[in-house]
């Protein structure tokens, strides 16, 4: 892949910078000069990318051949990789809100933490976050009927409120703890929680096929989730092997062959989703 490097010229902006242009789909096929002149928005002002970043490296002809490296902490930059369909973006530090929102393909790696709405309504691709994620990871935007519809998000740390709200398809893996309302309004897809799951897990979960798998402690289940059985799911081996081999979560293999308690709900809305909680000991 051809590497384009963006080095921040500023830090700690009080007003976030909106930079949807930091995407292989936008940058591929342009000259370095054209990349420098790409439009970004700081508050109500339209400015150029070069006012905030030093731009150097190579530009590929096609998005799938483009690697963009943001070389430093940019928690003040919103919409990095938004809507991308191919290629790769690496952020060597923290990133701001809406990272990878509505992306359909390619890969984003954040070596630090991310703000709210990362992967919101994404349809494909992979987002890997080495640190923590803010609220509404992989969620539906307010007023939208669907959240994440495909792809994979892996947060090595913890995730904030309402992760996976309105999720329809895809996979979210939380290596640390999950805040309240994870999987709220979920109507498909799979969420793995390796750490502690907080209250109101799966609130108003609806669809048959919605699945939350808890490998750590669960603070409290809603009373509208009904215990069904304790068993060893045959499909769990496939999921755990995928976590180990594709995402590098080697500890996932420790749970192969373990029994799980299955709860169905949310009965408050006539839901038939499943929450699986590993048996301890």
Structural description of this entry:
With 281 residues, this protein is mainly β. It has 3 helices and 17 strands. Strands 5-1-6-8-9-10-11-12-13-14-17-16-15 form a 13-stranded mixed beta sheet. A 4-stranded mixed beta sheet has the order 4-3-2-7, with no helix packed on it. Strand 16 (260-265) and strand 17 (273-278) form a beta hairpin.
Tally the helices. Answer: 3
**Biggest β-sheet strands, sense, barrel:** 13 strands, mixed
- Name the structural class: mainly beta
Choose one word for the global shape.
elongated
List keywords for this structure.
281 residues; 13-stranded mixed sheet; 17 strands; elongated
Short description:
The chain is mainly beta. It is 7% helix and 28% strand. A 13-stranded mixed β-sheet has the order 5-1-6-8-9-10-11-12-13-14-17-16-15. A four-stranded mixed β-sheet has the order 4-3-2-7, with no helix packed on it.
What's the layout of helices and strands?
Blueprint: E1 2-8, E2 17-18, H1 24-27, H2 32-36, E3 39-42, E4 45-48, E5 53-57, E6 66-70, E7 77-78, E8 88-91, E9 107-110, E10 126-129, E11 149-155, E12 169-174, E13 190-193, E14 211-214, E15 226-231, H3 236-245, E16 260-265, E17 273-278
Parallel strand pairs: 1-6, 2-7, 6-8, 8-9, 9-10, 10-11, 11-12, 12-13, 13-14, 14-17
Antiparallel strand pairs: 1-5, 2-3, 3-4, 15-16, 16-17
């Amino acid at each position: 892949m051809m590497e384009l490097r963006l080095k921040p010229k500023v830090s700690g902006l009080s007003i976030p910078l909106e930079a949807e242009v930091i995407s292989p789909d936008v940058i591929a096929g342009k000259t370095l000069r054209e990349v420098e002149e790409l439009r970004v928005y700081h508050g109500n002002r339209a400015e150029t990318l070069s006012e905030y970043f030093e731009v150097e490296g190579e530009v590929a002809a096609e998005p799938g051949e483009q690697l963009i490296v943001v070389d430093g902490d940019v928690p003040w930059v919103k919409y990095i990789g938004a809507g991308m369909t191919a290629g790769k973006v690496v952020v060597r530090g923290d990133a701001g809100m809406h990272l990878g929102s509505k992306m359909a393909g390619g890969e984003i790696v954040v070596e630090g933490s991310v703000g709210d709405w990362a992967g919101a309504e994404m349809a494909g691709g992979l987002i890997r976050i080495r640190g923590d994620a803010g609220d509404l990871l992989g969620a539906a935007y307010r007023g939208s009927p669907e959240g994440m519809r495909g792809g994979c998000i892996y947060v090595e740390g913890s995730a904030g409120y309402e992760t996976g709200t309105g999720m329809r398809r895809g996979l979210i893996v939380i290596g640390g703890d999950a805040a309240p309302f994870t999987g709220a309004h979920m109507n498909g897809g799979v969420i793995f929680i390796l750490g502690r799951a907080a209250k109101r897990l799966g609130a108003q979960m609806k669809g048959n096929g919605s699945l939350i798998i808890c490998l750590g402690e669960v603070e409290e289940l809603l009373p509208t989730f009904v215990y069904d059985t304790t068993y060893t799911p045959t499909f769990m081996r496939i999921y755990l092997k995928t976590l180990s081999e594709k995402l590098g979560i080697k500890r996932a293999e420790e749970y192969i062959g373990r029994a799980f308690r299955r709860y169905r709900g949310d009965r408050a809305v006539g839901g038939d989703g499943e929450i699986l909680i590993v048996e301890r000991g």
